[in-house]
Amino acid sequence: MTEFHDLPQDEQRRLIYPEIIRVVRLLGGRATRAQIREELKNSSRVIDVETITAEKDSPNRPGETFRPFDFPFYMSIKDLVFTGYLSDEDRHTVALTDKGREVDMNSWDLTKEVFKPARAEWNRRAKRNKQLREANSENSVQPVETEAPVPTVEQAEDTGDAIEQTEMSLPESEDPETEFQSRLHNALMGLTPIRFEEFARELVKEMGVTIDPDLGIKATGDGGIDGFGYVTGDDFRTTRVAIQAKRWQGTVSSPEIDRFRGAMDKFNAEYGIFITTSDFSQDAVRASRSYTRMVTLINGTKIAELVRRYHLHTQEVTAWVLDDDFFHPDRV
Fold first, then answer.
1. 204 Cβ partners below 8 Å, 6+ apart?
2. What pTM, to 2 d.p., does this model score?
3. pLDDT tens-digit map of 78-114
4. Which CATH architecture has domain 193-298?
5. Could you state, in order of their start, the residue ranges of all structural domains in the chain?
């Protein structure tokens, strides 16, 4: 069986199109790009978790990584917007149109109805951007980029460094949420293990857990946990919470969940929180829900969401961009 990343770009996107529509329908007809990708990991039978979460070293940004899957994923979302199956509500969120709600995916001609018309739109935009750059050059004015240069489909179907450069720019320009998550991930990976465990405890504290000042704090001999705390409910019942923090690149598998549950037993913890910079395999997700003591899983996407929610070591800013279609010089 051919691996997803070995498929031509058009075949990759023909696999992704119906999955995006299925997921947005499942999520109620409206979702952020991050939510769509997260649900793909949880429920897709077409694209496996490892394909979605795999990372590579950036050829242009030493010490940083990117996800190869993000390029066809974001291209596919834009293709569905261009062809009227999705609408862009903002730079984070897309919604199903009537066309997207009603399409019969069993008889959907993906090449004719999505890929080819979207290809024409990508090429039109590439031509427009080239004209704008040439006009700016003739007027000796430095161009102000309001969006990343849009690749032609022919460029997207090439292989090598050019594709990796495009992958690094397009997803970030399409979704500031993903750009933030990528930068946060690289920052967390730059922390020492001890500093990351401190960050994890601070995050859990913001979630309403009172951190124990002694348990799980030691750098070594911590009994298999990286923190411990207590949650007191409205009925004044207190629950013991064990914390595990893994600053990893690879996917966390189910044996890690089992080992953590064993550590929970040592401390009589009724509840566990497992935090990782990477992601969890489907077996790990199933293992976390087994037995009577649940383990809440917090992956890199969820970390970014919680950091924004609690403003933990972050500052919110607002950016404005021009509508290139409206301000295009050829528009009459």
1. 211, 227, 229, 241, 243, 273, 275
2. 0.63
3. 999 999 999 987 777 899 999 999 999 999 999 999 9
4. 3-Layer(aba) Sandwich (3.40)
5. 4-183, 193-298
